[in-house]
Design goal:
Layout (H helix, E strand, L loop, with lengths): L14 E2 L1 H8 L3 H10 L6 E3 L2 E5 H9 L22
Antiparallel strand pairs: 1-3, 2-3
Helix pairs in contact: 1-2
Amino acid sequence: MGNTVDLTRNVPRLGLNRLEVAQAIGVSANTVDLMVEEGFLPKPRKWHCRKVWLVSDLVAAMASWPEEGIEQRKEAGGEDWSMSA
């Protein structure tokens, strides 16, 4: 019995790179950059020159996005995300 790696075992993904984030949420990599800049997505974690987004950070950030048709008002303690016509 040697030390072999079982390649058939599923390993949970804890972090995603920029292209994987884009694919996971259905946008382009450039849109990921814009969403980070606008605060809709968290900034990536960094190890040396490698940037990684924690899946848990992405889920938490996206859970705070407003739902369509529901206005979030400043007096409720959050940012006003409603769109003015």
